Structures are given as C-alpha cells and as structure tokens.
Amino acid sequence: MRRIGWMAAGTLAGLVLALQLPSLAQDAGTTTTTGTAQRTITVSGTATISAPPDEALVTLGVHTQAGTAQAALAGNAQKMSKVLDALRNAGLGADDLATTNVSLYPMYANDGQSVTGYQADNQIQATIRDLSKVGNVIDASVSAGANMASGVTFQLSDRNQGQGQALARAIENAKAKADAMAAAAGAGIGEVVTISESTATTPVPYPMYAGAADAAASTPIQPPTVETQVSVTVTWALV
Fold first, then answer.
1. pLDDT at residue 138 greater than cutoff 50
2. pTM, 2 dp
C-alpha cells in the first residue's frame, strides 16, 4: 500500500471573516423572515497530500534535415519507426504511445529568401508505468535514433488518491480557525451554511540535459514526490 502524507496549513493567510450584524438599515434581501440578519463566518483551510509517483511521461522525437521536403519526411519516418520499435520492445503498448507533434519547415540561406533544404520533426509522448524502466526507455530510444527530448514528467495515475482524507483534514483546519476567531468575537460556531473545495495536483517535471543519454551508463532517474493541495472554503452560522 502506498503511504500518503498530509500537511495541514497552519497560517492565517487567506482568511475571510464575514460578521453580518443586524441593523435597522438592512435591506430586504439580507434579512430573515423575522427581520434579523444571519451572522456568519467564512474561513479557508488547506491540506496537502504527498505521495510517490507511479507514472512518468517522456517526450522523445526525431529531427532530420534533407535537401527536399520528401527526403526530410522519408528520413524522419524511417528513424521514427525504429524509435517506436525500440519503445515497444522496452515493454510499452499502443496505449502508452501518442504522437504529439509532426512538422516540416523550410531552411533558408542567409538572405532569408533562398530555400536550402527542409527539416522534419516528429515527437511522441511515452507513458511509462514502471518507473524503474524510465532510464532504460530513454537509452533505448536514443540508441534507435531519437535526437530530441523535452524532459520527464512524474505524476499519479489515480488523480483522486487520498483526496477524501485530505478534504477532511482541510475542513478540520478551517474549523479550528473559525472556532478561535468566533470565540475571540464572543460568538460560537453553528451549522454549516456553504462549503466549496478546489484541488490542484501539479505534475513534477524532471529536466533532461543534452548528451545525458549518450553516456555509457544508463540514464539515471530519481522520481520526486508529487504533492496535491486541497483547499476548502466553509461558511458557518454564528450563534
């Protein structure tokens, strides 16, 4: 079982305190049927999930140049076919491979008008579900002819992992603040009036450097921890 950690934010940043006091000047839209406005307090709370990633996204590609557009595309297709074969041989299936870019551009002479040739690019994104194979997959694709790479991104395959526990912790965090603030104002916390939440999971990019895959040893990869922040905003009635 993957271990999940959390960290409740303990700062008072982002607090919204709304004490609505009854007044003879209340307009009809903010009063109850008895003519008394409801007093409320609104507070935000956060919690953070920390978990090791179980997927890696690797973007690899082939860049070729030739005197004609047809030759550039043909050479690119030949090399890219070998890269795809290498990725399949490394254990990646059809669902793990997706083309992200195919382009063809003319190359110009110094005068900016004369076409001297063409360059073709083809990039593919590989989803690697066994993180121990990330370095080997990169090495295999480079050996097969890949000469473009835009890095590795680590993420969680289950975007909802641990969110239930984190939401409960975020609400506890918000309520603790609300209790303290209401007590300081000489009031107490009643029923929940409204509640909303937002979740932000940021995939962690891992840079790749030119020439790293050309070394004799396998490309070293150390997956970082992925953090997901859960935020809630709760409004309570004051009693």
1. yes
2. 0.66
State residue 216's pLDDT score: 47
Hey, what CATH topology would domain 5-50+159-201+229-238 get?
Translation Initiation Factor IF3 (3.30.110)
What fold does the segment set 55-155 form as a domain? Answer: Alpha-Beta Plaits (3.30.70)
CA-to-CA dists, residue 121 to 47, 73, 149, 199, 219, angstroms: 43, 8, 12, 36, 23
How many residues belong to the chain?
Answer: 239
Contact 5, 50 (CB under 8 A): yes
Please give the Cα distance from 200 to 48 (Å, whole number): 10
Tokens describing residue 210: 């030119």
Q: Where are the domains of the chain?
A: 5-50+159-201+229-238, 55-155
Long-range contacts of 69-74 (CB under 8 A, 24+ apart): 69/104, 69/106, 69/118, 69/120, 71/118, 72/104, 72/117, 72/118, 72/119, 72/120, 73/104, 73/120
Q: What is d(CA 239, CA 197) in angstroms, rounded to the nearest whole number?
A: 24
Greater pLDDT, 69 or 18: 69
C-alpha 237/C-alpha 194 separation (Å) is 9
Place of tokens 């382009």: 103
Which pair of tokens denotes residue 30?
A: 């903010």
Q: How far, in whole angstroms, is CA 83 from its chain's centroid? A: 27
Angle at 89 between CA 87 and CA 92, to 5 degrees: 55
Query: What values do phi and psi take at 141, rounded to 5?
Result: -70, -40
